[in-house]
Amino acid sequence: MHGGLIVDGSISAPGDVRQLISDLIIEYAHAIDDDRLESWTDFFTDECSYRIINRENHDKGRVVGIMDCSSKGMLQDRILALREANVFEPHTYRHIVSGTRVVGQEGDVFNVETSFLVVRTMQEGDMAVFCTGKYIDEIVVAGSTARFISRIVVCDSNRIDTLIVIPI
């Protein structure tokens, strides 16, 4: 592990790198919340992975999750299916993200963890906590750009009460 001092599980990273990482995480959430899903894939490198898994399976080292995409093309297919093929009750998400920690670094790749809460609002206005958990990310920082190499969405609950069509 490179990058500096470890404090409470976090490592120090230059302020500009931390800002790029923070901006990536925040803009990712806004893209989903604002229904700019076609741009969601732009937050990832071409060779990437995105997985949604419950906490119990993640803690036991199981890799099979609720959703597993192993390339940017698969992410794009996911959005295309959502827009053109899937039938679901219209709803939106609102992400609350906090507690971002840089927990490791290897060259320009940073291992990052962020807590999240997602509130789902249905078309008629009913709101509910949809999901809580943490993101476990590998983020590459190159110049003034940060992108996800890998994002694992670890959901605290073993149960998701509806089909996940919108990324978390």
Give a short overview:
This protein has 168 residues and is α+β, with helices and mostly antiparallel strands.
CATH topology: Nuclear Transport Factor 2, Chain: A
Strand percentage lies at 35-45%
Q: What's the alpha carbon Rg, rounded to whole Å?
A: 16 Å
Strand order of the largest sheet: 4-3-8-7-6-5
User: How many beta strands in the DSSP annotation?
Assistant: 8
Overall geometry: globular
* SSE-based structural type: alpha+beta
Q: What summary fits the major beta sheet? A: 6 strands, mixed
The arrangement of helices and strands along the chain is: EEHHEHEHEEEE
Named at the architecture level, the CATH assignment is Roll
Low-confidence stretches: 1-7
Average pLDDT figure: 88
Count of DSSP H/I helices: 4
Give the CATH level 1 class: Alpha Beta
Distance between the termini: 29 Å
Q: Determine the fraction of residues in helical runs and give it as a percent range.
A: 10-25%
The total domain count is: 1
What does this molecule look like?
By secondary structure, this protein is an alpha+beta fold. It has a single domain (6-155), classed as Roll (Nuclear Transport Factor 2, Chain: A), CATH 3.10.450. The chain is 24% helix and 45% strand. The protein has 4 helices and 8 strands. The chain has helices spanning 15-33, 37-40, 55-59, 72-84; strands at 6-7, 10-11, 44-54, 67-69, 91-106, 109-122, 127-142, 145-155. A 6-stranded mixed beta sheet has the order 4-3-8-7-6-5. The protein has a two-stranded antiparallel ribbon with strand order 1-2. The model is unreliable at 1-7 (pLDDT under 50).
